[in-house]
Q: What sequence folds into this?
């Protein structure tokens, strides 16, 4: 019963088999092998346009190098106030972008409210030398709160970024889960909605180490090879990342895995909604749930071997958490077993 | 006939099997799993003392974070003038160490000459506010030129560093190859000779992605967890690196692999020394050779599918390279086949 | 009628005479002259202990280099949410401190509320690798809102910083004005209350370019000479800064000038309080006032040549600003003329 | 007898009078006053084209911000191996340019040899991801060795920079002295020879703190206001720098002062050339001399109160320095007295 995080899962067998096959060959290093090139082209098909792709080792690297590539002196990137880039990356995006700053923008359910974003950017009109200049807007899809921006919401954010003359970045650490939740395509969820740069995460969804930065307009990525190398993110045997992506994309494995994770989350949501001992703290659409659970049930689950995180109660919690309750986060993954879900539901079920 | 670089090799089957086994399990992320802890302890045994170990994704990351951890304002790190850190890492060590500088120190065969190092450091006495202050000495073992510092040479460098009050770092991208060449132990080649920080490379020697920074005195590494996270080098599924190290160290696999690479290099050296069409540009001790080869033979080898790099002729080349000759670099690895060596020798043999 | 800012004032005649005298001499450069040394010692007397003093060119430089000197990887400095360091320095403190971050702490009247500071720091317990580590608390004295932390309030902030194991910095761009407002001594307002590092500003109070960073414990400033040089803040003819401080301190000129500025502010406060057309937006103690003024009066004042800034209405404004009113900021200085104050009051007086 | 450095001189009376006059006025801060604007325009006249001008506090700041403005990831700036930027600024240009690197280029007499520059740049062809990419060429005019690039030499350097697609920067800490030495105009010595960015120094030549960065093409300077503010180089009372430039340019005072300094150097050169106890180490054209002096004479001069620096003997010294001789540097300035020159010559004269 592993619900602590999707990065507690291992790697999918198909990924491993592909790695195994790759391991017996010799090939050129530092991203110059035929396999590297082939997989970069695969991204073109998936995004229905020519994109520039750069493999990196971590999601934090993807976000940070994306920010580095658009850094401006005194630059400011706008993100949700609870976004991973501002809360959980130890300042890496600030560090890699030549000390550009991150400005938090509030909004319910982990999503920036467009009017708040507009107001935040509006505080930095051209020539605000003492304050700085906007350089990026970044959204997380799916969000840290388990929600998903729908296409119209991305559109609205995108328009504000365009008006401000800055690019739009999407942190897609859980890109596949969001895609399944919206039942849409990579193109529709990104560049057709004005997303310019994407952190495309595969590690949480079945790989063990495969992240990519995708530039929808390759011309904007001309310095990225140098940024990546200088940032110590150009792996010598990068083709082993390419190999993971190869298996990840083959036969739409990645969509299948994300769909499974989401389905397991739905099963949890439905089961817990029906329980007297639990309620959903807020509605989510991806593979994360936030649940207000009876403390005794939570303890029973932990005693039975379930792993999950207690979660700090946000200030805008719709309904208060009672004394005998606690807020927890549950995350499902490609590897979550239906049996584990059902065991957990049984333990946390009707009292 | 792959002699271009040891990072063109794939991964050893034992590494892959261990990865496969790891992939089916759930475990805590970000370096907190039991396996991570167990492997960190394994390093204690290998180095015969308690060390602090941090897994990172690339050799450049290991070198750069080591430099970051000793950075001082106006700081200067001293390295050989052809060291990887100054020549081949796109400025990453400078970048990660808050714009500390690298100062090249000359010396034959890829090794800093102690008197040159002493003179170089001597230009920065305490209080050289306009010039800067020494912060690190770094040696590469084995060197970029295929040579190996013997223990006395490390001692001599170490004494100069200690006199200057700065730590000594070793770039061990080919640590195993050097160890085999010297027939010594990790402890003897490092802290017993005054090495304080080690970039311990395993990628070139049979892993696909496994590098570690080793601090001989854990107290000096207290900020490293933050440095690593901020540098985007804390992998979520870091236990897959731990797993590679697990297999790498089991039954001394790593020493066996390095010994094989070195043996293949020796076989090449001996074969080419006996040829009329080739001569060793200079003596090497590790898995790299630099060979002056008849141009026709070089072409024949390439035509037969051999991969290797032409190498720029250094200014201090002992004997000149003739018009019908060229300088090439050959690198062997854990995966080099004896047959390939013999084929290559046959092509480049006596004319 | 110049009330836009105290940095619109020129320089006091005594400062200029001292500069004139200095200009005819030759002396050693880069802070090594006898005058430099003598003035550094003068700071010891003023602060009643041995301090380390570094002259720099701007208040932003003083704040930024102070932050640089305590920077830690993933480091976080805590400041009031409207502090100059976070709002008005284009990210310089972040930039100079190796991409450390500034964390805003709310509180009324421009002062951090101790419980808010405690909560903010509490979010970063030891080992918060993904979030970062506290490195500094910084207060502004006098604040951007014209208020002044009283000694007990500094004590309270200081205790929280000490508990967190981080130093306390004071941005004293208007140090003299605060000192006069509290009727206390430099020692009492700083190290006796736990302040470790001070940005000591003299530019706003009668010099044209004289700022200093003061370390209450010289041992903590050992790297500062390198930080200052690397930050391009070591002036060649730094003795011209020393000369300004020489005149500034002579016969307590600086206290006299600050007292004058404060007195002019008091005169404005009293006059405007008695007016039907104006009211104080909130109480201030230094040389800044925030006034809600009848729009017609404001226009009349501008037409008569008065300079002052319209000010954005803060969200926690005690009483709303009416449609025919506006919020303005008035700043007095060492050079403010009593006549100008009276002229301004006449224009803005009872309708 | 002050010959230690031109920054040991004070400030010219005309500069001081202008400062005095400025000090009595109120005016807008942070570079927005009418005087600031007027002086910026004065630079247009002096350079015979519309330029963008930014006042900063130190020569190191001017050089560093110039480098920051052209920084590229993995970027490399090429300079003479003994240039101030690489030798004497504690790494500031590296620090401010986001860890770009400085690559030393050798050449006699403090001047880069064009063929050496060409070879140095040639090591970084497009796509040298592991090595980095050229971003700037920078020359010092007059050089650290007291020599001056003639116009043809600047042309030759400039062509190489243009071919490499990188801008050319000139460190003009002693711009006036070079101008007088070449008997040419600012336009001829800069943009007409391909110089794109100039560090225009006035501090050494009669001001006490007045440096400017001049962009020959204002469009290339659009980010400079943010760079300057973020670098803590936007002075609040920047008009006091403008005032210094105002007096500096009035009636060509600056040319007069530089001519005086150069004439004093010529007088020293001529006198010492005629002495049996001294000889010029190499020919210089600006206000610096390097002299091989009899040790007894050197001691006698010091005893008589002369200040000058002993200088390390360069490796390419034309004639060796004898056991009873030493190499010294003499620098004249706008404030050097003819009497002092003659006294010094008398002491160091024919034995």
A:
């Amino acid at each position: 019963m592993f619900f602590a995080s999707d990065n507690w899962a291992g790697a999918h067998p198909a990924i491993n088999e592909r790695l195994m096959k790759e391991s017996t060959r010799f090939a050129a290093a530092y991203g110059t092998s035929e396999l590297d090139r082939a997989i970069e082209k695969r991204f073109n098909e998936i995004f229905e346009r020519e994109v520039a792709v750069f493999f990196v080792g971590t999601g934090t690297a993807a976000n940070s190098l994306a920010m580095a590539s658009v850094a401006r002196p005194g630059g400011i990137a706008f993100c949700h106030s609870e976004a991973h880039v501002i809360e959980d990356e130890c300042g890496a995006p600030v560090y890699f972008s030549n000390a550009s700053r991150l400005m938090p923008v509030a909004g319910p359910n982990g999503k920036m409210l467009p009017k708040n974003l507009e107001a935040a950017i509006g505080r930095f009109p051209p020539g605000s030398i003492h304050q700085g200049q906007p350089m990026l807007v970044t959204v997380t899809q799916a969000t840290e709160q388990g929600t998903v921006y729908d296409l119209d919401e991305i559109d609205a954010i995108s328009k504000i970024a365009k008006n401000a003359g800055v690019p739009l970045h999407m942190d897609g650490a859980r890109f596949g889960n969001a895609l399944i939740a919206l039942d849409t395509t990579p193109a529709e969820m990104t560049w057709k909605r004005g997303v310019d740069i994407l952190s495309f995460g595969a590690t949480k969804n079945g790989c063990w180490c495969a992240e990519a930065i995708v530039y929808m307009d390759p011309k904007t990525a001309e310095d990225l090879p140098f940024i990546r190398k200088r940032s110590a993110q150009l792996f010598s045997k990068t083709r082993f990342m390419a190999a993971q992506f190869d298996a990840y994309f083959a036969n739409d494995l990645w969509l299948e895995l994300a769909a499974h994770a989401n389905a397991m989350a739905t099963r949890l949501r439905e089961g817990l909604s029906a329980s007297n001992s639990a309620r959903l703290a807020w509605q989510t659409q991806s593979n994360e749930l936030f649940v207000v659970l009876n403390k005794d049930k939570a303890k029973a689950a932990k005693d039975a071997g379930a792993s999950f995180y207690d979660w700090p109660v946000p200030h805008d919690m719709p309904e208060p958490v009672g004394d005998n309750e606690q807020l927890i986060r549950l995350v499902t993954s490609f590897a979550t077993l239906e049996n584990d879900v059902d065991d957990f539901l049984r333990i946390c079920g009707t009292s």
